[in-house]
Task: inverse folding
C-alpha cells in the first residue's frame, strides 16, 4: 500500500486510466479474438464460442483460394499504393518548393484530401467513376474520346484501378506535405558546395536532397502503414469487394465472413493475419526510419 | 533554398507552374464536384448531355435529408448529426484528459517499464479498426454496449489515447523542466506548477491534439458501422450508407450529407494546419 502513496507511484497513477482503457478496448478484445480464432464460433449459435477446434480455421484459410486472392491483392494494393503515393508526393513537393509565391495557399490545398474521411473519398470516387452519371465518363464523352460509357466499377481490372486512384488521391498529400517540410529544412551549404564542385542537378538530388529526405519518406511510410486499413472504408462503399470478388481485400473478406456468414471464428483468424500484416509493415518502415536517422547522425 | 542558385529558363518556370496547377486541380475538382452536386436537382445529375454548372441551384437536397420536404421521406440525418457530435466531443474531451496525464508521465518521470509501456500504447494503434471490430462486436453485444453512444465513445477513447499521449509527450518535452522547478522553489506544489506554468505553455498543442482526436472520431467508419444499429447511436459516416440501396444511389442526397460531414473537418483542419505538419513530423525526425 505504501508504494501507491509514495512519489514513485505518481507516473503509474497518471497512466492508469489510459492503461485501463487500452486493456478494456484493445487488449481484452484481442485476447477474445485470439481465442475465437481457435473455435468454430458462429454468431447464430452462441454455444460454439467454447467449441475448440485447434488450428482448423487457419488450415482452412490456407487452403482457400478466395483467401489467398484477397491476401495477395491486399499486398499488391499496399505496395502499389504506397510507392505511387511516395513518387507522386515527392514530385508534388519538388514542384511546389520551386514556386515562389502563394506557397501557404498551395499547402492548404494540398491538405484538402486529408480532411476527407475515407468513406467520403470512397463515395466521391464512386460518383466520379460511375458509368452513367460520373464526371469522368461525362468528360470523356463530351471530349469525344469515348462513345460508350466505360464501366469503371463494373469491370474487375478497371475497378481495381479506380480503387487505387481513390487511395492515391486520398494519401499522396501525406507524403507531399511531409516531404515539402523536409525540403524546407534542407541545409543550403552542401548543395552550394556541390554545385561549386560541378555536380549537375540530378547528382545534387540523388546524393544530397534524397538522402536528406529519406527520414521524411520513412515517417510518411510509417504513418501510412499504420492507417493503411482505412482503405476498407473506401472499398466498402465503392465496390464492397465486387464485381464477383474481383476487388476483395483481406479487410472486406473478413467482414463478409464474420458478419454476413456469421463465421466469427474464421473471420477472427483472418483478423489476426491482417493485424500481423499491419504490424510487419509498420515495423519494417519504423526500422528503416531509425536506420535513416542514425545515418543522418550529426546532420541535425 | 536552392532556387537562389538555380537559374530556371522561362519555359521551365512555366512547366513547373502548369504542373502545380494541374496537380491542384486534381486535388480540388472531386470535392468541388460533390459540392456542386449537392445543390443540383436530381434531374440535372441524370441529364444527357451532362450539365456542368448547376442551372437551377436548389437547397432541396439539404432540406430533404432532414425531412423538411413534404414530398420526400426524410432520413434521420439530424439524429446522426447529433450522435456524431455527442460521441466525437465526449470521447475527445476524455481522451485529452487521460492522454495529457499519460503524456506528462512519459515526459517528466522516469520509471520502470517506461519504454515497454510506450511501445505498448503505440502498438495498440497498429491494430486495424476493422479487425478490432470483430471481437468488440462479440464483447459489446454480451455487455449490452452495442448501439449505444457510450459503447462507441469508449472505443474512440482507445483509438485516440495513444496518439494524444504521443503528441502531448512531445509538447511537454519542449517545455524546459527548469520552469516548473523554479515555480516549485518559489513555493508552488508540483500540481500548482503544472497548472500555472506547464499547462498554459502546452495549451495550443493540446488544442491541436484535441482537434486530431475529434476528427478521427468524426470520420471513423469501420468500427461504427458494426457497433451501431439504429438512430440511437448511428454516426454520420454510417448514415451515409443509408442512401445506397441495392441498385440505386441517391447521388444528390448523398452529396448533401457528404458536405455536412466535410464542413466541420474543413474548418477544424484549417485551424490546426500549422500544427498538423509539426504533429506529423514530431518525434519522428528529432527523436
Result:
Amino acid at each position: 500500500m505504501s508504494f501507491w502513496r509514495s512519489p514513485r507511484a505518481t507516473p503509474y497513477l497518471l497512466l492508469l486510466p489510459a492503461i485501463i482503457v487500452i486493456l478494456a478496448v484493445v487488449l481484452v478484445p484481442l485476447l477474445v479474438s485470439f481465442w475465437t480464432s481457435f473455435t468454430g464460433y458462429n454468431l447464430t449459435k452462441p454455444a460454439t464460442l467454447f467449441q475448440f477446434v485447434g488450428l482448423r480455421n487457419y488450415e482452412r484459410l490456407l487452403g482457400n483460394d478466395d483467401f489467398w486472392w484477397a491476401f495477395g491483392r491486399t499486398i499488391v494494393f499496399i505496395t502499389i499504393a504506397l510507392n505511387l503515393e511516395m513518387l507522386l508526393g515527392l514530385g508534388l513537393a519538388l514542384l511546389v518548393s520551386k514556386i515562389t509565391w502563394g506557397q501557404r495557399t498551395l499547402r492548404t490545398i494540398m491538405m484538402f484530401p486529408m480532411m476527407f474521411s475515407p468513406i467520403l473519398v470512397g463515395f466521391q470516387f464512386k460518383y466520379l467513376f460511375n458509368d452513367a452519371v460520373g464526371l469522368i465518363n461525362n468528360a470523356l464523352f463530351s471530349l469525344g474520346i469515348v462513345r460508350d460509357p466505360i464501366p469503371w466499377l463494373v469491370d474487375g481490372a478497371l475497378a481495381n484501378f479506380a480503387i487505387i486512384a481513390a487511395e492515391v488521391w486520398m494519401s499522396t498529400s501525406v507524403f507531399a506535405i511531409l516531404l515539402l517540410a523536409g525540403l524546407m529544412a534542407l541545409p543550403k551549404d552542401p548543395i552550394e558546395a556541390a554545385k561549386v564542385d560541378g555536380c549537375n542537378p540530378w547528382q545534387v538530388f540523388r546524393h544530397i536532397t534524397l538522402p536528406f529526405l529519406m527520414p521524411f519518406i520513412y515517417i510518411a511510410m510509417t504513418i501510412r502503414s499504420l492507417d493503411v486499413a482505412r482503405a476498407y472504408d473506401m472499398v466498402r462503399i465503392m465496390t464492397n469487394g465486387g464485381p464477383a470478388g474481383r476487388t476483395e481485400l483481406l479487410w472486406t473478406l473478413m467482414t463478409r465472413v464474420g458478419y454476413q456468414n456469421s463465421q466469427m471464428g474464421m473471420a477472427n483468424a483472418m483478423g489476426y493475419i491482417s493485424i500481423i500484416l499491419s504490424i510487419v509493415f509498420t515495423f519494417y518502415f519504423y526500422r528503416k526510419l531509425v536506420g535513416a536517422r542514425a545515418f543522418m547522425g550529426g546532420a541535425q | 533554398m536552392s532556387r537562389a542558385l538555380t537559374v530556371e529558363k522561362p519555359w521551365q518556370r512555366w512547366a513547373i507552374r502548369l504542373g502545380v496547377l494541374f496537380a491542384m486541380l486534381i486535388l480540388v475538382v472531386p470535392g468541388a464536384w460533390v459540392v456542386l452536386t449537392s445543390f443540383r436537382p436530381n434531374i440535372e445529375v441524370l441529364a444527357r448531355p451532362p450539365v456542368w454548372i448547376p442551372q437551377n441551384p436548389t437547397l432541396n437536397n439539404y432540406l430533404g435529408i432532414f425531412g423538411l420536404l413534404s414530398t420526400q421521406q426524410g432520413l434521420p440525418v439530424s439524429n446522426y448529426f447529433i450522435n456524431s457530435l455527442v460521441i466525437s466531443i465526449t470521447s475527445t474531451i476524455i481522451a485529452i484528459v487521460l492522454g495529457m496525464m499519460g503524456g506528462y508521465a512519459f515526459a517528466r518521470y522516469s520509471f520502470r517499464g517506461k519504454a515497454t509501456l510506450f511501445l505498448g500504447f503505440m502498438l495498440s494503434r497498429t491494430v486495424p479498426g476493422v479487425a478490432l471490430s470483430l471481437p468488440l462486436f462479440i464483447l459489446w453485444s454480451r455487455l449490452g454496449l452495442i448501439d449505444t453512444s457510450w459503447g462507441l465513445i469508449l472505443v474512440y477513447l482507445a483509438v485516440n489515447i495513444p496518439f494524444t499521449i504521443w503528441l502531448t509527450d512531445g509538447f511537454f518535452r519542449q517545455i524546459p523542466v527548469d520552469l516548473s522547478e523554479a515555480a516549485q522553489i518559489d513555493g508552488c506544489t508540483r500540481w500548482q506548477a503544472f497548472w500555472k506554468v506547464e499547462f498554459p505553455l502546452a495549451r495550443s498543442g493540446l488544442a491541436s491534439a484535441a482537434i486530431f482526436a475529434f476528427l478521427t472520431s468524426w470520420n471513423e467508419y469501420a468500427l461504427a458501422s458494426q457497433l451501431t444499429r439504429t438512430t440511437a447511436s448511428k454516426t454520420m459516416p454510417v448514415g451515409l450508407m443509408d442512401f445506397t440501396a441495392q441498385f440505386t444511389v441517391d447521388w444528390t442526397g448523398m452529396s448533401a450529407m457528404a458536405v455536412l460531414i466535410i464542413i466541420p473537418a474543413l474548418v477544424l483542419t484549417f485551424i490546426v494546419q500549422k500544427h498538423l505538419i509539426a504533429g506529423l513530423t514530431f518525434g519522428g525526425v528529432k527523436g
Remarks:
- Chain B is about 70% helix and 0% strand.
- Chain B touches chain A through 96 residues (CB under 8 Å).
- Chain B has two domains: 2-65, 77-281.
